[in-house]
Specification:
The complex is a heterodimer.
Chain A lengths: L2 E7 L2 E7 L5 H8 L18 E4 L2 E4 L12 E3 L12 H9 L8 H14 L5 H7 L11 H17 L1
Helix pairs in contact in A: 2-5
Chain B lengths: L3 E3 L4 H11 L3 E4 L5 H6 L7 E4 L9 E4 L2 E5 L4 H6 L1 H6 L1 H7 L5 H4 L4 H7 L7 H6 L3 E5 L4 E5 H4 E3 L2 E2 L6 E7 L6 E8 L10 E9 L5 E9 L6 E2 L1 H7 L6 H14 L10 H25 L3
Parallel strand pairs in B: 1-3, 2-3
Antiparallel strand pairs in B: 4-5, 5-10, 6-7, 6-10, 8-9, 11-12, 12-13, 13-14
Helix pairs in contact in B: 10-11, 11-12
Classes of the chains: A alpha+beta, B alpha+beta.
C-alpha cells in the first residue's frame, strides 16, 4: 500500500507516493533516476549504497522508505557538481583514488561524514571511517591518501 | 521486499498493534538483521512495525543514576555518549565493534539483544552490568534480568505481544572498571569468534569485591562465567588469579565448531581473552575516580 513520503533530498523538498517497505536505494535508483548510489551486495556489507541521513552514513539498501519521512538525505548527486567539484572529489581525482569507480560514491560520502565531525582525522580514524566501504581495486592506500589530501584542502579554504 | 509497513507513534499504539496482529507482526528497529533475513528469504514476513518513530524509545540518559537506553537508540549513539564512554566502557567497546559505521548508525542495542545471536556484540557487556530489560505488553509491564533474557540461538524470552522498550544499567560507583575484547580475524565487519566482557569492583585496599565475566559465541546464548568469577572475588590482582579465572572460564563454555573456528580453538581463546579482559577491567577500576 503506497504512502506519501516527504523528505529533503540533496537540499530539495521531495514528496513521493511509494510503498514504504521499499528500500531508499531502490527508490533513488528506480523512481528518481539517481543511479550514483550503487547496489552492490544489497545486504549492508559492501557500503556501495552509502548515503547520508542527517549527516550520518547509513546503508540505503537496509533503509525502508517509511523511515525516510521528514529526513534529510544526501546522495552523491548532491556532493559538488562537474563544474565545481567538492574538495573530496577533487582529491580523489588528484591522488588517483578511483579505479573502477563502483565504491567511489559510497567512499566519498563516508569520507564526508568523518571530515564533517573530525576535520583532521588520523590515518587510523580514516581507515575506521571507511571500514564499511569495500573496494576491490585500489587496496585503499590511495583512498586514504585522498581523504587526507581533502582534509588539507578543506582546512586551507576555511 | 513487499510487506505491510506500520509506524506507530507511541508505545501504546505499538503494543496494541502487536496484540492485534499476533505473531505475524515483526518488530523493526535498525532493520540490519530483519531486512537481511527477509532479503535472503530466510523468513517470510507479511507485516513489519517500525518502532523508531516513537519518541519515548529515543531516551538515552541517567535516571536516578541508572543508565536508561531506549529501544530506538543506535549503536553509534551509545559509542558517542559521554556517560557510556566514562562509566560503561565494555558497552562502548562492544557497540563500537558491531558491523560498520553505516550499520551502527541504524542498528540498535535493544535490537541486538532481541535477535539473541550467541555472538551478539553488546550482550557480554550488558551481562556484566546486570542490565534489566523492560518488556511492555497491552496488559502489563515487567523487568527481565538480562541473564534470563536469552533463550537460545536467535531466541529471546519475550512472551507473545511483548515489546522491549528500554534497558536499565545500574549506576557505576567509584573503583569499578569494565572492558570487552572481541577476537575476530578481521578488524571490522566481522562476527566475534570469541567475545569476553569483564567487570571488576575494588575495595579501598585493592581487593576485588565484585567480579563479573560474560562471554559471547561460545555457547547457545551469551553466558556468564559464574565459576570463574568466584575465583576472583576477594583476590588481589596477580598473574595467578588471572590465569586461574581464564582456566575456569574455558571449562565453563560449550562452544561449537563452525566456519569461523573450531570448538577447541574457541575454548583456548576463552582462556586467553578472559585473562586479558579481566586485567584491563581491573586496571581501569584501579584508575577510576568516578
Amino acid at each position: 500500500m503506497k504512502q506519501e513520503i516527504r523528505f529533503i533530498l540533496n537540499g530539495e523538498h521531495v514528496s513521493l507516493n511509494v510503498d514504504p517497505s521499499r528500500t531508499l536505494l531502490d527508490v533513488l535508483r528506480e523512481d528518481l533516476g539517481l543511479t550514483g548510489t550503487k547496489k552492490g551486495c544489497d545486504e549492508g556489507d559492501c557500503g556501495a549504497c552509502t548515503v547520508l541521513i542527517a549527516g550520518k552514513p547509513i546503508n540505503s539498501c537496509l533503509t525502508p522508505m517509511g523511515k525516510i519521512n521528514g529526513q534529510e538525505v544526501l546522495t552523491i548527486e548532491g556532493l559538488g557538481d562537474p563544474e565545481q567539484l567538492h574538495p573530496l572529489q577533487e582529491a580523489f581525482l588528484k591522488v588517483g583514488a578511483v579505479q573502477c569507480g563502483y565504491c567511489t560514491p559510497g567512499m566519498l560520502l563516508s569520507a564526508k561524514a568523518i571530515l564533517d565531525i573530525n576535520p583532521q582525522p588520523t590515518e587510523a580514524e580514516i581507515r575506521d571511517s571507511i571500514a564499511g566501504n569495500l573496494c576491490r581495486c585500489t587496496g585503499y592506500t590511495k583512498i586514504v591518501e585522498a581523504i587526507k589530501y581533502a582534509a588539507n584542502l578543506l582546512e586551507g579554504r576555511s | 521486499m513487499g510487506f505491510e509497513y506500520f509506524r506507530p507513534g507511541s508505545v501504546e499504539e505499538a503494543v496494541s498493534l502487536l496484540f492485534e496482529h499476533g505473531p505475524q507482526m515483526n518488530v523493526l528497529a535498525g532493520g540490519t538483521d530483519l531486512l537481511v533475513k527477509i532479503k535472503h528469504k530466510a523468513i517470510h514476513v507479511s507485516k513489519v512495525m517500525d518502532i523508531t518513530g516513537i519518541d519515548d524509545l529515543r531516551i538515552l540518559n541517567e535516571d536516578n543514576q541508572d543508565l536508561i537506553i531506549g529501544a530506538a537508540i543506535t549503536q553509534n549513539e551509545i559509542v558517542r555518549h559521554p556517560i557510556v564512554a566514562q562509566k560503561y566502557t565494555a558497552l562502548k567497546e562492544g557497540a563500537g565493534q558491531l558491523g560498520s559505521r553505516q550499520v551502527r548508525n541504524l542498528a540498535t542495542v535493544v535490537g541486538n539483544i532481541c535477535n539473541a545471536s550467541p555472538s551478539a556484540e553488546t550482550a557480554p557487556a550488558l551481562l556484566v552490568y546486570e542490565a534489566k530489560v523492560t518488556a511492555v505488553s497491552c496488559r502489563d509491564s515487567r523487568e527481565i534480568a538480562i541473564k534470563d533474557f536469552f533463550a537460545g540461538p536467535g531466541k529471546n524470552s519475550l512472551a507473545p505481544g511483548e515489546l522491549v522498550t528500554k534497558l536499565s544499567l545500574p549506576a557505576e560507583p567509584a573503583r569499578s572498571g569494565s572492558a570487552y575484547i572481541k577476537l575476530s580475524p578481521r578488524r571490522a565487519m566481522d562476527t566475534a569468534v570469541v567475545g569476553v566482557a569483564a567487570y571488576v569492583r575494588l575495595d579501598s585496599a585493592g581487593k576485588c569485591t565484585i567480579c563479573r565475566i560474560a562471554m559471547g559465541a561460545v555457547a547457545p546464548t551469551p553466558v556468564r562465567a559464574f565459576q570463574a568469577e568466584q575465583a576472583v572475588i576477594g583476590a588481589e590482582l596477580t598473574r595467578e588469579v588471572l590465569a586461574e579465572a581464564g582456566r575456569i572460564a574455558a571449562e565453563e563454555v560449550r562452544p561449537i565448531s563452525d566456519i569461523r573456528a573450531s570448538a577447541d580453538y574457541r575454548r583456548q581463546m576463552v582462556e586467553v581473552i578472559t585473562r586479558r579482559v579481566l586485567e584491563t577491567a581491573w586496571r581501569r577500576a584501579e584508575g577510576s575516580n568516578k
